[in-house]
Amino acid sequence: MNAPIAHLYYISVGVLLMAAFHAALLARSSAYTRAYWAFATICLSFSLFQFFCAAQYVAIDPQAAMSAHKWVNFFSILIVALIAYLVASIENKPSSFMVAYGVAGLAALVIVANFLNPLGYRFDSLQQDGFTVFPWGEQINIFSGEQSVVYRLMRLLSLAVLVYTIVFSVRIRKLGGRLANRLIWISIVLMLVTASFAGLSDSGALKMPYLGGFGFLFLVAGFSVLVRADVSNRKIEEIRINEALEREVKSHKIANQRFEHALHNDPLTGLPNRAGALIRLNNLIDINKLNQTKLAVFLFDIDQLGIINGTRGHKTGDQLLREVSQRLQNNLRDSDLIARLDSGGFVIGASGLKGESCEALLHEKLSSALEPPFDVAGSVLKMTFSAGVAVFPDDAGMAEDILAAVELALHDAKSSGPGNLRVFHPSLKESIQSRIDFESALKEALEKKQFFLCYQPQVLASDGRTVCLEALIRWQHPTYGLVMPDRFIQLAESMGLIALIGAWVIDSACEQLARWRAMGFEEVRVAVNLSAQQLLDPDLEETVTRALERSSLSGSDLELEITESVLMQDPERSIERLSALRKLGVRLSIDDFGTGYSSLGYLRVLPVHAFKLDRSFVRDIGNGGKDLEICATSIGLAKNLGLEIVAEGVETEAQMQQLRTLGCHLLQGYFFAKPLIVEAASHFLTSCSHKVLMPPEEMQMTLGLAR
To answer: Parallel, antiparallel, or unpaired for β 525-530 and 610-613?
Structure first.
């Protein structure tokens, strides 16, 4: 088609679109963000103006040409408002923006009139000769006719905006340099000329297309050169100022500032460290003295942070510390103190407290903030936090004494297990000293061979044969007497001793099983409980392998029991560790089944052989009700999954009878035997080795011998 004019318009559309894209890119990193976005929008509007001009000129019928003409009008009106906003954005004054918003309001009214009028806003009536033929044969649709009042007013508004732009250009002519000024003035002259031609074309005096878009192409170049020059000048000025400041600042002052910051702040979280916390605490003490209010100081500590660092690396531990820091900061006032002490400890100081319940409310608030799981390094970790609290002036009057008090309270909280809160009391000092002595004794217990194992049988519900003995650790101390595991296992975990103690238990249990095998008990295996730290210990597989090899046992001779709540702390990691253990051939079981959470969701993917039904469900099974339903459901679930189930805490014949009826595989409890020392366990195996399936009365008489 012979349409060179239409082709020129389409080419200009592409050029203007590229200019809009370029301005949008510059807007992301420029100090003139709004100005660049405004200029990008103007370029886009002019490209659409050119596009619809071409659509009007090549339209095949008058109706299509008029439809395109209305869009030409729309973008010509929009451009006027955008130019006013562009100037306001560069000038950045409230008065300039008021002018721009006023122009936008008038333009909006004209746009409405444009689309409501069948001929657009330019004409009240049209001349009949709509087509214009140029000498080279190109025929285009050009409208002319009686100009409307709205159009005449809009032309005056456009002229006012152009004058406003000229005045602004005069004021900033020094910013762009000679080349930029020339381009801007050439563009303004071209737009004035093209605007005049547009008016003559609309009146019918001239038959020519709108040329405003081509005039704007020069403004594109002028604007780019102007802003680039301005940015360059600003950078040069900033460099000059920075260099002057650097010369004036003495080097030793900078060094002192860095030293002070490093001395009082934690480099990982950016929070104050212990030294910085003491400074802030002293300030808060002075404020609360003046206001006669209380200052509550908390010390939160991440339980088992050492396990995270050991199993997932310090990078993961550092990320966890940063997220904990952020959550705490988000739930504190600006006037409150937050600092990081050693390892996973965070000090919180909240001043201005008046009621006794304020400490509890603040602890509840912070605990709720820390309760949701942490998404760290691609893993979801559910952490627990121990906390201690001390109050000024009730518990101490100086910053150092308050920190000491709150650390004692935290130590007491952690000794009771993870996730506890303790309030400082003066009696804690004596209690802590006793606990320190207890810890010292625990450190020496393994070396002095004060630990020993007891064994509690697990019998087949079908015929009463003993197939497994669960190894249970005990501590016999010359001063403390017989110490049960619930007093020292958690303490051993917090002290980092559990791996050594656990390795001793596995090795000792395997040695004893080898002795029983030598006595002829070929079908018996031993079960050992694993703590949370043991399960996540990367050396656990090597520990188990060495113990089995030393005792000449196979993997199936050893069963490892893992508490369900431990598995649910980090299910993905637990599955990974259990799979590694299963490759060794050892049996795996879930202890205290039903007391954790989400257990059924993970049970189908956990690589275990059995689970132990918690004694809390077995206790009232003889009375029917919910406990009976839970036991029946659990046993049925185990059968469907091809797993064995062990009922713990069987203490009566009624419980045994009911569990046998339900189809439970193994039974364990005082009804058969309490935990037995080695000699008693050997006697138990000898006395029961010849028994087979028998009536319940006779079975009770036989299995009750060791009670």
So the answer is: unpaired
Q: Which of 372, 391, 426 is the last residue of a domain?
A: 426
Residues 539 and 457 in one domain: yes
The SS3 of residue 630 is: helix
Nearest Cα to Cα of residue 567 among 522, 515, 517, 605: 605
Average pLDDT, the chain: 81
Judge if 217 and 357 occupy the same domain. Answer: no
Could you tell me the pLDDT band of residue 602, with boundaries at 50, 70 and 90?
Answer: low
Of 495, 581, 541, 533, the C-alpha closest to 309 is: 533
Same domain, 421 and 303: yes
Strand partners, 386: 301
Q: Give Cα separations from 369 to 138, 270, 305, 377 (angstroms).
A: 74, 20, 18, 20
Write out pLDDT tens, residues 236-246.
Answer: 777 877 777 77
Distance of CA 179 to the CA centre of its chain: 52
Residues 207, 201 contacting (CB under 8 angstroms)? yes
Q: What is the pLDDT of residues 245-301, one digit of tens each?
A: 777 766 656 656 666 666 778 888 888 888 888 888 888 888 888 888 888 888 888
CATH of the domain at 604: 3.20.20.450
CA distances from 320 to 293, 324, 328, 330, 694 (A): 34, 6, 12, 15, 58
Tell me: the pLDDT tens digits for 3-29? 787 788 888 888 888 888 877 887 776
Q: Is the peptide bond before 478 cis (omega within 30 degrees of 0)?
A: no
Q: Are 635 and 660 in contact (CB under 8 A)?
A: no
Instruction: Please name every residue paired with 295 in a beta bridge, in sequence order, or none if there are none.
Output: 392
Alpha helices in 117-211 (DSSP H): 149-171, 173-203
Host domain of residue 112: 4-240
pTM for the whole thing? 0.48
